[in-house]
């Protein structure tokens, strides 16, 4: 059953008006048929500062600035597990100067909340990378492997922190529960930083998050990685010794994707402009740094290919969240 959104119509309308006012930068398609974004573009991040979506949004915005010679202002529009930011983009229909740093919530939110959008409500531009979850525990946890966690969950109620009620870690845990016939008590937080604080503070027993959100705590030894829910081991030095779930008998892989989208209703010139600039960004040192520093997998797709990916991804997610 879908959960009702807590956002009021008035609040959404106010946000839409505010966004429209902020994004009026003079962009548009000229008589020559070429799109020009003008001197200011807005990149919406629908989650709080410091998390994986924020890191990705700022990196992509910075990289696009390099290839467009346009100022791209990042704005965190937080609330409703991402619904506020996506609704702002919905209200910016036709405006080629507004973008959004997108991820799994684009697909999951319409399945579990009563929102006015789906992934089909927007213009997909670029899938920039894939991001597999790492299962982690606090440094002093008695669990030494994902197998230990599963065995303990068969005999007692374990708590698992998740970032957002529809995030990739929630989906990953759901898949693990189905495969291993266990049940974990979920504790939901708004950001990965809150998840880590709860884990290190002993308030929850296990968590899963993307590698880029865990780097500092893994390096400091405050947390330990139990496994990677990836098809093969990571090659990055920090994670090279972390087994895959399959090595531990957990045959689950699930990737969050990172990328950006534009509003519906933008003209073809604007859509092609952003796809072209995204492809240019992929060839830059800035993109390589984004991938390396966040330990991502550089799996890209653009435009129609991105749409096809979202269709398949939505079917997979619906099989978990829609049941």
Core attributes:
about 325 residues, alpha/beta, D-Maltodextrin-Binding Protein, domain 2, 6-stranded mixed β-sheet, 5-stranded mixed β-sheet, 11 helices, globular, disordered N terminus
Can you put this structure into words, describing what you see?
The chain is α/β, with parallel strands linked by helices and 323 residues long. It folds into two domains: 9-131 and 257-321, Bordetella uptake gene, domain 1 (D-Maltodextrin-Binding Protein, domain 2); 134-253, Periplasmic binding protein-like II (D-Maltodextrin-Binding Protein, domain 2, 3-Layer(aba) Sandwich), CATH 3.40.190.10. It has eleven helices and 13 strands. The chain has helices spanning 9-22, 52-68, 83-90, 105-112, 146-155, 168-180, 192-200, 215-220, 268-282, 285-293, 303-321; strands spanning 28-29, 35-36, 40-45, 71-76, 98-102, 122-132, 134-138, 159-163, 185-189, 206-209, 223-228, 255-263, 301-302. Strand 8 (159-163), helix 6 (168-180) and strand 9 (185-189) form a beta-alpha-beta unit. The model is unreliable at 1-26 (pLDDT under 50).
> What would CATH call the class of the largest domain?
Alpha Beta
Structural class, from secondary structure content?
alpha/beta
Number of domains: 2
Q: How would a crystallographer describe the biggest sheet?
A: 6 strands, mixed
CATH architecture classification name of the largest domain: 3-Layer(aba) Sandwich
Query: How widely separated are the two ends?
Result: 8 Å
Indicate the mean pLDDT: 88
Helix content: 25-40%
The Rg value, from CA coordinates, equals 20 Å
